[in-house]
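Input set for joint prediction.
Command: fold jointly, output tokens.
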Amino acid sequence: MSIQLGGVCQPGTTRVNKTGGWRTFRPVFDYDKCIKCKLCELLCPDMAVLPMDDGFFEFDYDYCKGCGICANECPTEAIDMVLEEK
Amino acid sequence: MTVIRTLDKDKMDVAEGSYAVAHAVKVCRPNVISAYPITPQTHIVEDLSQFMADGKIPNCEYITVESEFSALSALVGSAAAGARCYSATTSQGLELMHEVLFNVSGMRLPIVMTIANRAVSAPINIWNDQQDSISQRDTGWIQMYAEDLQEISDMTAQAYKVAEDKDVMMPAMTCMDGFILSHVYEPVVLLEQDLVDEYLPAYEPEYSLDPKNPLTFGAFADPTVYTEFRYLQQQAMDNALPKIEEAANEFYEIFGRYYGGLIDEYETEDADIILMAMGSLVGTIRDVVDKLRAKGVKVGLLKVRTFRPFPAEAIKNVIKDAKVVVALDKNISLGLNEGSLFTETKASLYNTKVDVPIVGRMIGHGGRDIPEKTIEDIVEEAKGIISSGINTESKYADLKEELL
Amino acid sequence: MKEIRIHGRGGQGSVTAAELLAGAAFEDGQFSQAFPAFGVERRGAPVQAFTRISDAPIRLRSQIYEPDYIIVQDPTLLEVVDIDSGAKDDGIILINSDFAPEDFDLDTNARIMTVNATKVALDIIGRPIVNTVLLGAFAGATGEVRASSIVNAVKGRFSGKIGEKNAEAVQKAYDLMAEDK
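tokens >
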């Protein structure tokens, strides 16, 4: 690899860096409690909460860093933070 | 090649310096102009605004902003999108741009900017010296200093030519002494559009911002690559040395005018005393050299036209056989008590076989006028250095002791 | 080389006069340079402007300390400014005044000449703007530039009726001084 003029480079290089590996706790949905309010999707700082066709959501564990904001903000406590087994 | 200033009076108009520059910018066909008015640069941007209002600069956008910081920042985006960009400023405005200057050169954007050189505050002073641009010498901008209106006009086109060269791709400041050149009226050939078109091809950026083909500009560089970025910028500056000479030669072929590229010499061949200077002061020194030569004083002038990249080799070749060199500076590095032309010339002689006594004299700060007598006194003092050595290495040549 | 210093008050067009004079001299085939005494301009404050005229290209960038000619747009300046400073013995000081030259008691050997430029301006232009009138007087008094070149420079700057009237005033002042010369 050599440096291009002025450091111009291809965009989207952070996709390569799968930050999910940093995680200590992983968020897990309890779909029985979820009311599809979308707060978790809105508040996720890493866009790691992805909508599904049925209106529920799933986590993108490649990029979820386990910050827990979603679990903290969920109005129905539908998200559990579970210790990762590494 | 010696300096050739063909005096084709039929092509000349008596015009103001700022107008001549604005006209030169116009015929260089910029795509984006952004600037914030500040004395004594104001007339340049007023004239450009008028050209825009009259529809005389096709395919160009003038972005009005609330500060110099924003002016140059707007051009960072514009230049990244592939536009040929122009700005002009001076003094506090240039100092406010400081942070952005590094961004422009680091991102290798070939923006050209005219500096109407002025002193910096405090105390507030709107008159000429060169502290403003000299203080930006480490930011990775090419810096050239003009002697008269013809040279600052011609230098504008030359600056684009060098800055946009594929082996350079660095921004350039063309510097004219505020008021002394920006507000003077004198005969000047306003650059002809057809000749400029022949000299300066359209800018073709290597990369440009385009939503259809996204690229990242101005990204992060961690310790594993940062050093190499700086190395490449220095390499570009090294490349600029011969390119500046080439741009001057090509300009001569098309326009018939030549001022030297990096430097210019006047009566230096057998000179015992060589005065070094940059900008409008050079003209006054030429007159003094003629007067003193008529009296048998072997004095010559080395005009430093390009200060960044610093033309150390070219300077050394001129001064190596002199008996004393005096570098004149319209700036001071506080805490060193030296002007930069002096410091850098002196430094470039160390570790070489050239052993010429050199002293620095600071002069003309904050618009203090430089009459011929001040230069004659400096030459008189230099004669003493030849006979009895250096007494004071660096000092002000026009200090008013009675005010201290 | 001939050096000219123009004294006026901010707003009287001293700087414009210096520029027009440089333009006229160039039209005469000479080289020229014009610049203001770079100050903080204020309407009414004493200001100076300079012109150099030479056969050869002008390289000198210093201010003018020993002018060959001094033009005074407003005689009240004599009370506040040392208008004869550096005047040469064989030089000319041209003052806009309805008094005679001998009425001025200046400490100089330079020749003092007067012209009632205000009257010429009021009669012809209809306004007390004297800068162009004084250029005509300067041409008549010194012969350094042709009246026609001053007229052309004035017409180049002011178009239409204003230009015509200024040109007429220039010629009138030139004729007045040329008789005196």
